[in-house]
Design a protein that fits this description.
With 214 residues, the protein is mainly α. It is built from 7 helices and no strands. The longest helix has 52 residues. It is elongated and about 120 Å long. It comes from Octodon degus (Degu). It holds the Pfam family HLH.
């Protein structure tokens, strides 16, 4: 607003108008500078954070490979094909895979051995119980078993049965050809291995042994 009596061409009026112009406000220029500076610092912080995160990731991967080389025995063995060079990541991974597969096979083998041992332990426990029952029965009735026959008598019974069967087998079987031998064997079984025939043979053998013993 022009003071009374002042001319529009008055230079002081022009200066006042210039300072009143918002486009030349020094506070606005400082605000734009601060915003630009803030944007740049934000980008720098994001870039720095991304770089640090990437570095942490790479460090973690490197520690993982170092741990694998320490844990896996085959990674510690010298590979003459590559000399003294450091193992590559691909070789470390392959050796780790091979070692894990080896451990799986060993685990399965050990589980099978443990299963077999458990079955053996179960069988031994059953045998132990049976022997304890036999010992107890013998103590409760010490006179039982005095008339028990020997293993030799048992073998003589078996031998007598086989001798009788072999006599009929030898008389009935032809060895002119394999085909004729097969036919004779089936024919001999049907004729001489009937339940009644076998019963008669066993009774005859037992009768002979009884006469020999008594």
């Amino acid at each position: 607003m022009t003071e009374p009596g002042a001319s529009p061409e008055d230079p002081w009026v022009k200066v006042e108008c210039a300072y009143s112009d918002t486009s030349l406000d020094p506070d606005d220029e400082d605000s734009d500078y601060q915003q630009e500076s803030y944007k740049e610092s934000y980008k720098d912080r994001r870039r720095r954070a991304h770089t640090q995160a990437e570095q942490k990731r790479r460090d973690a991967i490197k520690r993982g490979y170092d741990d694998l080389q320490t844990i896996v025995p085959t990674c510690q063995q010298q590979d003459f094909s590559i000399g003294s060079q450091k193992l590559s990541k691909a070789i470390v991974l392959q050796k780790t895979i091979d070692y894990i597969q080896f451990l799986h096979k060993e685990k399965k083998k050990q589980e099978e051995e443990v299963s077999t041992l458990r079955k053996d332990v179960t069988a031994l426990k059953i045998m132990k119980v049976n022997y304890e029952q036999i010992v107890k029965a013998h103590r409760d009735n010490p006179h039982e078993g005095k008339d028990q026959v020997s293993d030799q008598v048992k073998f003589n019974v078996f031998q007598g049965i086989m001798d009788s069967l072999f006599q009929s087998f030898n008389a009935s079987i032809s060895v002119a050809s394999f085909q004729e031998l097969s036919a004779c064997v089936f024919s001999w079984i049907e004729e001489h291995c009937k339940p009644q025939t076998l019963r008669d043979i066993v009774l005859g053998v037992l009768h002979q042994l009884k006469n020999q013993l008594y």
